[in-house]
Amino acid sequence: MPKIGMEPIRRQQLIHATMTAIDEVGLAEATVLRIARHAGVSAGIISHYFGGKDGLLEATMRQILTDLSEAVAARRRVLSEDSPRAHIGAIIEGNFDRTQVTGPAAKTWLAFWASSMHKPMLQRLQNVNDRRLYANLCYQFRRVMPRAQARNAARGLAAMIDGLWLRGALTPEGLDAEQARTLAHAYLDQLLSQTSAQPTA
Amino acid sequence: MPKIGMEPIRRQQLIHATMTAIDEVGLAEATVLRIARHAGVSAGIISHYFGGKDGLLEATMRQILTDLSEAVAARRRVLSEDSPRAHIGAIIEGNFDRTQVTGPAAKTWLAFWASSMHKPMLQRLQNVNDRRLYANLCYQFRRVMPRAQARNAARGLAAMIDGLWLRGALTPEGLDAEQARTLAHAYLDQLLSQTSAQPTA
Amino acid sequence: MPKIGMEPIRRQQLIHATMTAIDEVGLAEATVLRIARHAGVSAGIISHYFGGKDGLLEATMRQILTDLSEAVAARRRVLSEDSPRAHIGAIIEGNFDRTQVTGPAAKTWLAFWASSMHKPMLQRLQNVNDRRLYANLCYQFRRVMPRAQARNAARGLAAMIDGLWLRGALTPEGLDAEQARTLAHAYLDQLLSQTSAQPTA
Amino acid sequence: MPKIGMEPIRRQQLIHATMTAIDEVGLAEATVLRIARHAGVSAGIISHYFGGKDGLLEATMRQILTDLSEAVAARRRVLSEDSPRAHIGAIIEGNFDRTQVTGPAAKTWLAFWASSMHKPMLQRLQNVNDRRLYANLCYQFRRVMPRAQARNAARGLAAMIDGLWLRGALTPEGLDAEQARTLAHAYLDQLLSQTSAQPTA
DNA sequence: TATGAATGAGATTTCATTCAT
DNA sequence: CATGAATGAAATCTCATTCAT
Question: Which of B164, C67, D103, D136 is 20 to 30 A distant from A76 in Cα terms?
């Protein structure tokens, strides 16, 4: 009796198993067999649903990026005010969201980051995301400072966010999200304070 | 045409070839055969000189860390003044040194970073280096601000440096060292400006 | 054309192919590729079913020892009398059983014998078997002679059996089982005749 | 300053090192590098003096066989009487000679034994030796018993000697030469006692 | 004479993928 | 829909041998 509607369930299971496997042993050792075992299914099924390992990895990265976008968007949707500080603050909060910061997601993220340098498909996903973050930051900073300065502010804050995450993924204890948020917000405050007096210009 | 005393030469060649290979195709695809071909030698010799692929990778990471330390140390040795700003500025300059930032080194660095999450030996090297950077920054900031604030400043600047590097490694055009230095120095200035009035205490 | 439930079949095939390969070219040249070819399968499957070459060799030795034990046990089960001579005679017969003495088994046996000197796992199997043979012989001799003499008789007969086998494995024509049995039984008769007059003591 | 007359010294060193290596790790793991290290020379020199590894192994086996022959011959040269018992006794003594029975020689012997099954050159050496032992035993037994019986006695005693040695090589404690000699002599006595009354016939 | 450098063949093992059931 | 069987390519490592010095 073939079960119907299994596809979305299986896909989700396998994507989740992929993150777990990467968190556990790293991307290099995350074989389809291990991933399949984590999902409680056979290895062959991965090719069935994703066309192959690469398809599964791509789907997993896509999932992570989607989760991140959604975490940011959710926070921006409920803002009580429309100020740049509020928007950028929401971006920071979204990036250090609980679900992003927890073990599996963080390590998978970094693994893909490194891997994307030589895999065009992953690199494309990566770039789309990067650009969106940068564009959003730029747009908000642009509201209170000159273009050139806004660009630098966006670059700086993006680097700060990624750097905090990177270092968090590497420390054995994991990222201290509270501390990271504090540092990012402090940096944001500094960036904004330099220009609060001179609107757009 | 074998000669004697080839060992140091071969080791250097192979380490260099490893960086080139990783830059070219990524850590996952950097097979011993490819590395050996880059060095113009046979694959077997890697086991001969490094005991195996892992030994070569470890030696390569060690080399990169050494190069970085040396780039920083060289700049600090020739400082004309002893101020925290001068020292930390030298650390920033060293981290965005030409040899560090060029393609091979940067990509190899990031590859090892991701890999070190699951390889104890690499992780150890990583940690030693991280701690030294943090300790140095902390010590210098401590000279002009209270301990808690110095710690946060060190964490923030370390994250900023790593973040700039990370993003630089990912962009196809490579890291814009000039821009990175500018952003890092600007951040440093902000960190220091907040405390210039209140010495140590 | 894969079917389910192949595991026991493949394991048996591969163990058999191992003996054939060792018989053909010796243990040193019995590569997994050659063994796999004898079994008509691919080399990779050996790791799949036995975890690696060592696992296969161990399983093969185990099989040979089991076969030997069973050959002896089968003969002892159908003895019409319970005398020491009958039991020990059955042990001799079992050791020179058709299936033991045929080319593949005999050469494989000797190959493992030599190899077991430096492979703990094989050595363990070897010892268990040796001890059982010695204990059985000792027990039967003990019924008709003093302990010290029984021990020597057991040692002597065990050596005789092994020696006949060893020389049989080395002669190009293979072991002459008939002749070997005759010599062993003659030796047994001599050992027993010396003590028929003095029961147990 | 090239040393002259090194050849016999080096050859002896290397043959000895080969036995030591085989005793230590077994024939399969006795690489030229390990053998060379035992001899305190470089690996390349083995090809120089023996034409290759096989040549060294052959020379080593030859040495062992020569040592054995000489041990037997030495004992037969000093016999006070010319009886079959004396001659065969000397053969037994020679076979359990101190130098033969000690670790390296015994294990090397067994290793070659197994190996000789598939190496024609070793097999030839093996056969020559076997036949000489058998012929000697046969000739002596023939002096006191009919031909058919003498052949069986020779076969039996040869098997006993080899069996004792084989089992001795396998026990972790090594061969108990004293016990082996006793058992062999006892067997010899039995063989002779059956026929002392009926000369040649 | 002897060494250390270097090679290339070969062996084992891993792994993604395919396929019949 | 799902599995377990099986393959074949690729990767690492070992090792005997050759060679220039």
Answer: B164
